[in-house]
Each structure stands twice: as C-alpha cells, then as structure tokens.
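Re-running the complex after MR caught last week's input typo. The corrected sequence lines follow. Everything else is unchanged.
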Amino acid sequence: MATGAVPAQSGGRDAGFVSDSENYLKNSSGLLSWIFTLDHKRIGVMYLVGILSSFLAGGLLAMGIRWHLMSPDGLLFSNDAYNQVFTLHGAIMVFLFIIPSIPAALGNFLVPVMLGAKDVAFPRLNLCSFYLWLGGAFFFVGALMMNGLDTGWTFYTPYSTSTDTSVVMATLGAFILGFSSIFTGLNFIVTINTMRPPGMTWFRMPLFLWATYATSIIQVLATPVLGITLLLLIAEKTMHIGIFDPEYNGDPVTFQHFFWFYSHPAVYIMILPAFGIISELISVHSHKGIFGYRFIAYSSIAIALLGFLVWGHHMFTSGMSQVTVIIFSALTFTVSVPSAIKVFNWVSTMYKGSISLTTPMCYALSFIFLFTIGGLTGLFLGTLSTDLHLHDTYFVVAHFHYVMMGGTMVAFLGGLFHWWPKMMGKMFNETGGRISAAIVFVGFNMAFLPQFLLGNQGMPRRYATYDPEFAWLHQLSSIGAFTLGIGLLTAGLVLLHSLFRGKQAPANPWGGATLEWHCTSPPPFYNFKHAPAVGDPYEFANVEYDSATDNYVFTDLPRELVPDEHEPAPASAGGQA
Amino acid sequence: MAQTLEEAGHDLDDHDHEHHENLAHHFDSYEQQFDAGKLGIWIFLVTEVLFFGGLFCAYALYRNLRPEIFAGCSEFLNTQLGAINTGVLLFSSLTMAWAVRCSQLRQHKMLVGMLAATLSCAAIFLGVKAIEYSHKWSMGLLPAGLYSYDPLHPHHPDAPNYLLYISLPFALILVGVVGWLAVAFLQGDKFKVRVLMPLSVAAACFFVGIGLGMVLESGGVEGHGAVDVDKVAHVHQTGESPELVGAGEQAVEAIAPDDAELTGLELLARDKSNPGAQDALEALATQEEVARGTVLKSEETPMPTASETVPINTPKQAGVFFGIYYCMTGVHAIHILAGMGVMVWLLIRAVQADFNENYFGPVDYVGLYWHLVDLIWIYLFPLLYLIG
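Corrected-run output:
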C-alpha cells in the first residue's frame, strides 16, 4: 500500500482518510506514549496545548487589567497588585505564548511535513525543548506563587535588582525558555538544510518554511545574548557584580542594550512566522500562485538580519549620544521596506484571485489590516521627535499590540484554523469560525484604537490610575477588550466543538498545493513512506475540487517524479507517489 | 547533537530498509546523519560564542571605562596557575582531536585512553581552578556585593575552608567511582571495570590539580606577594607611605606613571602653548599627593584626568573586576563540567566499541565543543591574567 500518500482507491477520488493504526494521534495510546514521544507532530500538539493554556492565563490577566481600568481610580487591584498583574500579563504573553506560538506549535507540526521529511533532524532535542518550555513555565508560575513580579517584562535595572519580588525565579524561567527557543531554532535550521528530499530546492520551499528559517536564525543568534544577560542580572541581584547596578558602579543603560539586543530581534521571532502563515493562507484561499515568491522569501531573511541593527530604538530617551540615536532611527526605517514588500505582495496575490472567504482567510485579511496599522504607527515611534512625545505612553502599548496581537496572534489563529483539519483530522464549523474572526476583528480595534488616542493625549503606560478626562477612552478600550475576549472564546469553542462533533477532514480541504496536503488528514506517524515528489508549492492548475468528497484532488502530476529505489511509483494513484 | 541510539518508543515498520545500526530512522544515510549533526553542533557553537560574547562585551565596556582597575586587579591573579591551566587545556584539545581520529580508525582501546586523558586534563584544570577560587574567596576578593578584601589583613583568619567545600563533591565522586570499581572487579564485571578504571584516574586527577595549585599558590602567597611588592616599589619610585606597602596591597594603587611617561609629559609641558600636557602634569602631581596619602584637592579644581588615581580597592571598583572575573571563568568552568559529563557518556560508548568509520559523529561533535571551550580559555587567560 502506498502509505504516506493518499491511499489509492478507485478513480483516485479519495478523501484521504488514514487508518487508526497509522494515524499519528492514535498509532499508540496511553499517557507515556505522549510524554516520551519523539514524533514532531505529537510534540507540536503538546506545545499547542501548553501555549493555549498560557494564552488563556495571560488573557485572563489582560481582562483583569482592562476591568481595573474601567474607572479612573481603578476597580480591582491595589497599585502594587496592578504592577504585578501587568508584568505577568506581559511576561507570560511574550515568553510563554507569542515567542513559541507559531514556531514551536505550528512549526513543529508543519516544518517536516511541508519539507517532505520524516521528522526534524534531532527528535530528542525537540522533545527536550518542549520540556524546557514546560520547566520555564513552571518557574513563571512559581514566581507568581511566591512574591509575584512587578518589574515589567523587561526586567530593567536598577529596579529589578532592588525589588523584593521574585526576579531571580522569573529570570531563571526566561533563561530556560531561551534554551527551549534556541534548540527549536537549531533543529529547524538543520532540518531545512540537510533533510530536504530530492527535488525540494530552496526556491520550491513553501514560504512558511522560509519564514521559519529566518526566525530560526534570529532564535539562534539573539537568544544566547538574552541568556547571558539574564544570568548576569541574576548574578547582579544575588552578589552585585557591578555591571548593571549603579549602586555598584554599574550602568543600567548597559542592561538595556544587552536586553534589547535580544528582545528587539525577538519581536521578529514573533512576527516573521506570522508572515509565513499569511503567505500560505492568502495564496491557498485565493487559489492563485503567490505574487513575488522570491521577494517574500528574501524579505524574510532581510528582516531577520536588519532586525539585529535596530535595538537602540527602544532607548531613544535613555540617554544615548545624538549620533547613536540618529543612526538607530535611520536603521529602524529600513525594516519597513521588506515589511512593506510583503504586504504589497499579499495584496497583489489576491488581485484577480478566486478568493474563498473561509475562516482562515478572514483571519488573514484582518491580519493585513491590523498589521499595516501596527507597522505604520511604528514609524511615529521610530521618528526621534515624535518618539519623545509618545515614549512610554499608551501609543506604544497600542502599537505593539497591533503588531503582536493583531499581527502574530491573529495569524496564529488563522494558521490554526487553516491546519486544524490536518492536525486533528476534523473540520470545524465554518460559520462559527467566521463569526469568531469578525468578533475578534471588531473587538481588537475597539480595544486598541482608543489607546492610540490615549497615548497621544499623554496617558502614560503602566499606570494603575488615570485622570478622569481619559475615562471614556479607557472604558471604550475595556469594552473592546471584553469583546475581543468573547471572540477568542468563540474561536476556542468552535475548535473544541470540532474535536467532538466535527466531520472527518479530507486530505486537502482548502486546495493547497504544498506537501502537507498530499498526506492524509491527520498524517500517518511517519509522514511520507518515500521521499515525496516535489513541485512548485503555489501551482494550483492541477488542484481540482471534488464535490463528492468535499475535497481537492491532484488531477495530474506535472511534477518531476523522483525515481524510487525500491519500488516503481504507482502510476494511477490519485495522490502523488 | 545527533544521538542515534535505537529508540524503543520510536518503532517504525522498516520492511524495505535493511537494519542499520546507529542510523536513526528519519535519516536516509550515514552521511546525511553525520552532516545534520555536524551542522547542528556548529550552530550550537555559534550560540555559545554569542553567549560568551555578552560577557566579553561587559569586559570590554568596563575595561574601557576603567583600565586602571583591570590592570591593578589583574595582579591578584596568579599567572603561573593560569599558564598551567592553559597548557593543560591545550593538551586536552590534542588528546580530544586524537580521540576523534581513533574513533574513525576503530582503535577502541586507544579511544578510551584518549577520552580518559581528556577527562583527566579537564579534572586537573578544575583542581587548579578550585585552588585559585578558594584562595581568593578566603581573601574576600569577591564580586562587588560581597567584596571584603582588606590590604592590611588580606587573609581572613575566620574564613570558612572553601577549598574543602569545593573538593567535597569531587572527593565523593572519587570515592564512589573507586568503590564501584572495586566491587565490579570483585564481581568480575569486565565492562564496568573498563569503564570505571579511566574514570577513577580522571577523578583522581582533580586532586592532582589541587596539589599542583597548592604548591604554586603557597609558594606564591609569600613569593607572589613579594614579587609584586617589588613591582609596586619599582613603579612607585616617587615614594609611598611605607605602611601601605604590604603583601597583596599592590593592587590598591598600581597606577602611577612610569618614568618614561613622566619625562615625556614634562618635555611636552615645557611648551607653554600646550595646556593639555600641563593639565596632565598637574593631574599626575595630584595623584602623587593622593598616593602619599594627602587629601584630594577640592572640587573647584577638577583633575584633568590624565590617568586618574582612584582607590580601587573598594567593592565598587575592584569588586566590579572580580564580578566580571567570576562570571567569565565561572561560566567557562560550567562548560568544562558539561563537557566532562558528555565525555563520560562517550567513554562508556567507546568501551562498547560503538564507533566506527560510519558512525563517529558524537566523538567529533564533542570534540568540536571541547575545542571551543579550550579556545574561550585561550582568550580569557590573557584578558584576565596578563594585562597587569
């Protein structure tokens, strides 16, 4: 049986269901088969569960913050408690949710399958990354349980070296999470470099893989610097080594340089994989080849490299020399070029495409809208004169929520809906999915557009109370945040519902042409029995809708077939060999 | 790292692949497996370089800000011990490279020997390091927050026996390994004997390092101090308050100008149109006064900073140097320990004769890692020990 591909049946019109003995979710059972699994797909699913739990925790904290800010004097927390709540919201969302969200959860599942490999290069290292993530998460929970944390997620000195809260615990957690991130990145780079099947040239790789590759480069090059920074911070706090603490002749601005040397590229760790997802989604759901493939591919790498040169724009008001700030400001603007190239290409891809407004496409469209706002408002912050006015105000908060949440989180949801049938083998309720996308879009804008106005009027970030003149904007923002929460809840319920009531997913429900759609849904545990034949990942001419099975099938194989060493490729099969 | 032991939980129907020992299921060939591992370890080494890069950055920053503190405090470090450790690590890199060759040539016994030699060198390194650390700790030469060095009483009489605490885990390991070896020998378990014998040697080598360090450092406490007093006396020809010249205080203010600089400045200062040189000369005069113990001039005439004299024997000055010193050498020592852990695993596999010309990746990868750890020390040694 030509397993790994769509099982051959009469006429080649098969939905591509997999047998239970080969389904990666069911081929072995019991808790231990998950805890010690080396299957990248199961590790991806475990990540998904963990990451969504963190998202829930961070989201509830966000709801707490917005509830508190409904009134100028604060409704819910004392000032100290408020500091802890926004710190944990930030730290959990950044370190536990956004950074690992797309690369670790979706990436783990998709990278080998899209590449046509059997697994990542180092499966045990992959599992190790997951447990490092779990360990780091426990440290964060530990910090929460002990004394809390009130430094903000950036751990700026000298406050972080003098506060009594659990800075050491939390930084250790971030340190461990850093290694999880490094190992994931390392694994993907090696996998993409050495495990491509014959025919999978660099420029036949799906753009999601290009984005993941660029992300992995940042993870590998930037995260170690965060590691040593946090280690030095722990040493500073416990023994006062005098590097960051002004009380001992240290320099807090040095900490900021060290910290942002990682944490600015980390912003691209968050957003680049989202670009990758959007490139897939826009092309597949427009049923049209991607416009400017090479430009999108190269712009991912360009963003990864430029991202290393702009960390100083977080510190325009920290006291750097005039020359330095001007250089950093100028470099910051260069990043907008590759980002704009991507947006342009996505829009051009849709032009004259046959757009299906499926749930993933709805999310992809709202991504383009929200990310564009997030990116353009970044220019105000990269400009020196306006940044002096806007620094540390709600404008910054709104800007990075537009990029991280409106960008990464929305793309993550879009990707989750897009690959959910592949991962779980179940179709979700399309109407419910679209409604969730609409609520998320409306709620998000209602929550964060007012914050631009607040920031412009001078409302500083991280304040537990505010002047009554800001009240109506804050209340509007809070109502938007609750709406957003409801939208996310709807999305979660739609997905959960599909697990129990969803109809079985066909191999290719959307009409994608990349390799993961050649596998069954869900894929067999070994992905591909033989190295799959590889063609253009965005060639949709031979993908045809089959209404009998509500599936897209590959009608012919213009791809070059790789001669198999062991057995001849089945000629009549509906799928590829 | 590509660890390719057969995984029980990862079974796969391998009907049409013949069974390859040590070839992981998801690789097509030994070559692909080796290439993947090699790329992986190189990327890992890149992350290591960046990790240490942060430390080197901190070093460069503060040395640039306060060169005199670094020059002065470096006098506290025993160059002989540093040089010995450099030699030991270089030699261990040779044995490690040799081990890689042995694994390719199926010279299993030689491979075990080379790994044991590398482990032993690492243990000697740590032994010497233990002497260096414990000696400094007992003198209070610690990071800023804990710094308590007193030049008049450099050796705290009531300091805990740090050397004992550091050695204790290694002593336990030695006793455990030797005991286990004896049991294995009595039971006639040849495999365990062949593993534990080299491990016992390596564990014992830690104490060789301790001994070596003790001989040099105890010869050093007087000799080392005396040498430096000479050096200080030479530098401070202009006259010190004599009670300040004591063993170990050389670092307090080893920052006076030497003759050449002074003459040069005086020559320059004769040119009345050169106010910079005159300021510098004035600053030097101030420094000498400070060195003689006179009070600093008042704030209205700020010193024009030719090379400022500051009392560097304070937590905020010397403490910063030692903070950086302990971070750099400490993180390096952790890497040595990690390397030793992996090498023990290699040694067990070498005794099992697991490696051959198709499958020697793990030895190769650990070798690369070990060379990097060695290389970092090659940079640490001059940057910390030889800048005085």
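None of the earlier attempt is carried over here. The radius of gyration of chain A is 24 Å. The domain at 39-554 of chain A is CATH 1.20.210.10 (Cytochrome C Oxidase; Chain A).
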